[in-house]
Write a structure and sequence with these properties.
Elements: H1 2-9, E1 29-31, E2 36-38, E3 43-45, E4 50-52, E5 57-59, E6 64-66, H2 71-99, H3 112-120, H4 126-158, H5 162-167, H6 176-184
Antiparallel strand pairs: 1-2, 3-4, 5-6
Membrane topology: Multi-pass membrane protein
InterPro entries: Palmitoyltrfase_DHHC (IPR001594), PFA4/ZDH16/20/ERF2-like (IPR039859)
Protein name: Palmitoyltransferase
Length: about 210
């Protein structure tokens, strides 16, 4: 829950009037919606109505944009969701077999439409239907969280955002270890155990090192 809160509280909005990064160079561009010059990796979010530093995407579940300041907390949140939902799936399956299944029951009873029909015609209880649906809900949450986490870790390893990867931008790929430290900080692995609120992210979200191959 702490990672969830940090994703929502740690925003990556860019305000040109409050920022002090010197004179913008030719790589900066003007955001028409915000009417200001923004750094190369900042993009406007039509939902937040703000420009976000190193914007990756807008997360509808947390109701916030994922960017420079909160991406590490978002990835850790997905990791914990995957673990929790996987454990929930396991516990639900165990309970179904102990409390509702007989020795001669087959896997066909776990198919939701058939389970609903069995309950409708009185061949199974509502409790069995409820826990079968709960099992699928937990399983889908685990798979979805794992998929998002793996995609985000892939982008971190590439030194890219979703937008940059889609556009083939490779100028920020500065090595695997450096890419991970740029998102998670120096003790990046510990973020998956506990959110390191006191550890600052390297950089300011505006200036970045470039790949030597570019």
């Amino acid at each position: 829950m702490l990672n969830f809160a940090l994703v929502s509280l740690r925003r990556s909005f860019y305000d040109g009037q409050k920022a002090s990064h010197g004179i913008p160079d030719a790589s900066w561009r003007k955001c028409v919606d915000c009417d200001q010059l923004v750094p190369p990796r900042a993009h406007h979010c039509p939902l937040c109505q703000r420009c976000v530093l190193r914007r990756d995407h807008h997360c509808f579940f947390t109701g916030s944009c994922i960017g420079f300041a909160n991406q590490r907390f978002f990835i850790a949140f997905c990791f914990h969701c995957m673990l929790g939902a996987s454990y929930g799936t396991y516990i639900t399956v165990e309970y179904i077999y102990i409390a509702h299944m007989t020795s001669d029951a087959g896997l066909v009873h776990f198919i939701p439409p058939l389970t609903a029909l069995e309950w409708l015609f009185g061949f199974s209880s509502f409790g069995f239907l409820f826990f079968v649906l709960l099992m699928y809900l937990c399983a889908m949450a685990a798979i979805g969280s794992a998929g998002i986490m793996i995609w985000q870790l892939f982008l971190v390893a590439q030194g890219s955002t979703s937008f940059e990867y889609g556009k083939g931008v490779i100028r920020y790929r500065t090595g695997l270890l450096h890419n991970f430290r740029a998102v998670f900080g120096s003790y990046w692995m510990l973020n998956f155990i506990f959110p390191l609120i006191w550890v600052d992210i390297p950089g300011d979200g505006v200036n970045y090192n470039f790949s030597k191959c570019v």
